C-alpha cells in the first residue's frame, strides 16, 4: 500500500531530484523477514494499520506480503503478495526538480528524533510531503498528502523489526 501511495513520476532523469537512497542501500536495510508496520490516517481521521513483511529477496528483487491489521497487529482481512526489484523501489522516490522542493529537517517520530530529507512534491491536485530518514533507508517514515491545504492522508511508519 505504501508503494502505491508514493507516485512514480516518469521523466527525463536529468530533470529529476536525486533519490534519498541507492537500490543497494534499500536492499541492505531490508533483509528477508524484515517487518514494517504503518499507521494510516484518512482525511476523516479513520485509522487503519498495515504490516509489510519482506521475504524471498535476493540481489535484484524482493517479495513482500502486505497484511491489513489491528492496532495490536492482529490480521484483518486478506493479505496480498507483491514483488519488486530494488531499483523499482528506489525509483519510487524519483520526483521532478521543477515541482519538488528538497530540504533537510528533523522529525520527531516513534524512532526518536530523525534527521530527514523532506521532499515536498507539488501535484496537480495538491501537495505530497515525504520524510525520508537519513538513518533508515527505504520507504519514507512519514507521508502526508494535502488538497486545498487540508490533509487527505497520513502514512506513518510506527515499527520496523529486523530479523534476529
| Tally of structural domains | 1
Which structural category fits the helices and strands? mainly beta
The strands making up the biggest β-sheet line up spatially as 4-3-2-1-9-8-7-6-5
Shape annotation: globular
CATH class: Mainly Beta
| Order of helical and strand elements | HHEEEEHEEEEE
* CATH third-level topology: outer membrane lipoprotein receptor (LolB), chain A
Short description:
With 164 residues, this protein is mostly beta strands.
Explain what this protein looks like in three dimensions.
- 10% of the residues lie in helices and 49% in strands.
- It has a 9-stranded antiparallel sheet with strand order 4-3-2-1-9-8-7-6-5.
- The protein is globular.
- Strand 7 and strand 8 form a beta hairpin.
- It has one domain: Lipoprotein localisation LolA/LolB/LppX (outer membrane lipoprotein receptor (LolB), chain A, Clam).
- With 164 residues, it is mainly beta.
- The chain is built from 3 helices and 9 strands; from the N terminus they run H-H-E-E-E-E-H-E-E-E-E-E.
Amino acid at each position: 500500500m505504501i508503494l502505491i501511495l508514493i507516485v512514480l513520476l516518469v521523466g527525463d532523469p536529468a530533470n529529476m531530484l536525486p533519490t534519498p537512497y541507492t537500490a543497494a542501500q534499500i536492499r541492505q536495510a531490508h533483509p528477508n523477514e524484515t517487518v514494517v508496520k504503518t499507521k494510516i490516517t484518512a482525511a476523516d481521521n479513520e485509522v487503519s494499520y498495515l504490516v509489510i513483511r519482506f521475504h524471498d529477496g535476493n540481489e535484484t528483487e524482493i517479495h513482500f506480503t502486505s497484511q491489513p491489521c489491528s492496532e495490536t497487529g492482529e490480521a484483518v482481512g486478506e493479505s496480498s503478495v507483491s514483488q519488486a526489484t530494488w531499483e523499482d523501489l528506489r525509483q519510487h522516490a524519483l520526483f521532478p526538480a521543477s515541482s519538488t522542493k528538497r530540504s533537510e529537517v528533523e522529525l520527531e517520530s516513534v524512532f526518536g528524533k530523525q534527521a530527514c530529507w523532506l521532499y515536498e512534491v507539488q501535484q496537480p491536485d495538491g501537495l505530497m510531503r515525504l520524510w525520508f530518514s537519513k538513518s533508515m533507508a527505504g520507504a519514507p517514515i512519514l507521508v502526508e498528502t494535502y488538497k486545498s491545504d487540508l490533509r487527505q492522508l497520513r502514512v506513518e511508519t510506527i515499527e520496523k523489526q529486523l530479523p534476529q
